[in-house]
Amino acid sequence: RELMQIRCSSLGQVMTNSRKKGELSKTAQSCIKQMAKEELLGVKRVLSNKYLDKGIIMEDAAIDLVADRYELDPFAAVKNEEHFSNDYLTGTPDLILEDSVRDIKCSWGVDTFPLLDEDIPNKDYYWQLMGYMALTGKRKAFLDYCLVDTPEHLIQRELDSMAYRVGELSLDAKREVRLNMTFGHVPIEHRVKTFEIEWSEDAWEQIQIRITECNEFYHKLINK
């Protein structure tokens, strides 16, 4: 039977290690159960929240910001629409350049922007980028966190939500909210935080082993 492919965006979940030797972690099991449920019911889960909404709407602006920050070729630094797959993985990297892939994350605000972090704040993204390198043959990847302005309707939604919780907002409070959701006044070098990830044969071997284990679990679920 053919291997079930894992989306690169889900790879971090299945790569979490279990506390019990010889079995998948609860996080990995939950991810595979969701995939099995979607297969059995013939539906796909649609995720939506304010963080994802901003990321989707502002993706092109974030790519332009990264291109400006690192003086990338504007003709090469365009959103990739090509879907890749191999025996184990499937995914669509944000940017594919001559010698690397890049994945772009739009931070919601200053609190979630890792400006001074030395390590990737979310290990899941390490595995996601490793997957993209496996799919594209690139041996270097970059994870770019970006501070881009929040769309006006999301700012208004945030203001409405705050007003609902605490009552009518003063003009100063509204101004403060907007200041924390728009970043044109911040120097460009402080609006992009980049983590570099090098290809690892060891990590790729771990991925193949884990996806094979996930397949065993998956087929037991759908063949019950």
Tell me the Rg in angstroms: 20 Å
Count of β-strands: 7
Strand line-up of the largest beta sheet: 4-5-6-7
**Measured distance between first and last alpha carbons:** 16 Å
- Residue stretches low in confidence (pLDDT < 50, at least 5 long) are none
- What is the arithmetic mean of pLDDT? 94
* Shape by Cα distribution: globular
The assigned structural class equals alpha/beta
Please identify the oligomeric state. single chain
Note the run of SSEs as H and E: EHHHHEEEEHEHHEH
Main beta-sheet strand count, sense and barrel state: 4 strands, mixed
Counted by DSSP, the helix tally is: 8
What do you see in this structure?
The protein is an alpha/beta fold and 224 residues long. Helix content is 45%, strand content 13%. A four-stranded mixed sheet has the order 4-5-6-7, sandwiched between helices. A three-stranded mixed sheet has the order 1-3-2, covered by helices on one side. Helix 2 packs across helix 8. The two termini are 16 Å apart. The mean pLDDT is 94.
Condensed summary:
The protein is an alpha/beta fold and 224 residues long. The chain has helices at residues 11-14, 26-41, 50-57, 59-70, 123-136, 152-166, 171-179, 201-222; strands at 6-7, 84-85, 89-91, 95-96, 101-106, 140-146, 192-198. The chain has a 4-stranded mixed β-sheet, sandwiched between helices. It has a 3-stranded mixed β-sheet with strand order 1-3-2, covered by helices on one side.
